[in-house]
Amino acid sequence: MLRLLMYLVPLALTIFALIDCLNTPEDEARHVPKIAWVFIILLFWIVGPIVWLAAGKVRRPPAGGRTPSEWHRNHQFEQVAPDDNPEFLKSLAEDNKRDEQLLKNWEADLRRREEELRRKETGEEPKDN
User: Fold this and answer.
1) How is the chain split into domains, by residue range?
2) 42-81 burial, b for 16+ CB within 10 Å, e for fewer?
3) All residues at 6 or more sequence positions from 49 whose CB lies less than 8 Å from its CB, including other chains
4) Where is the Cardiolipin synthase N-terminal domain (predicted)?
5) Residue 68 and residue 77: Cα distance in Å, rounded?
6) Residues 42, 62: contact at Cβ < 8 Å?
7) What angle do CA 107, 112, 113 make, to 5 degrees?
8) What residues form DSSP beta bridges with 57?
9) CA–CA separation, 109 vs 103, rounded Å?
10) Burial (Cβ within 10 Å: 0-12, 13-18, ≥19) of residue 37
């Protein structure tokens, strides 16, 4: 079992480093071009992955912690409840006015059609308004 582990650990490290290298953007590969790093990882399969992980790409601090993300740095966002947000309330008022106008138009059209049906049934001539 220990003999198998001696081959599996370097193989897993090589696969991890190769995938990491392939997923790294070209401009983040340090010292040599990215394609050269792929060959180094594959040809020197014990030392190559270790060198890649130690010095191969630009390492950035993790996104968590005290450093705000790029989105938070550029946008000052303060959460506001919908009933306290004046823009939301204004949009509700505009929607309400538009809906009332649509309802008035619909009711007027309905009255006009009902009047036309009554005239057709009774045979009266239409009135010109």
Assistant:
1) 8-59, 80-123
2) eeebeebbbebbeebbeeeeeeeeeeeeeeeeeeeeeeee
3) 10, 13, 14, 16, 17, 18, 41
4) 12-56
5) 13
6) no
7) 100
8) 29
9) 10
10) buried
Contact 83, 89 (CB under 8 A): yes
Encoded amino acid at 46, one letter: I
Residue type, 55: A
pLDDT in tens, 57-106: 777 766 555 665 665 566 655 677 777 888 888 999 999 999 999 999 99
pLDDT in tens, 20-61: 988 888 888 888 888 898 999 889 888 988 888 888 777 776
**89: Cβ contacts below 8 Å, ≥ 6 apart:** 83
Is 48:42 a contact under the CB 8 Å cutoff?
yes
- pLDDT band at 109, cuts 50/70/90? very high
* Token couple for 11: 């193989």
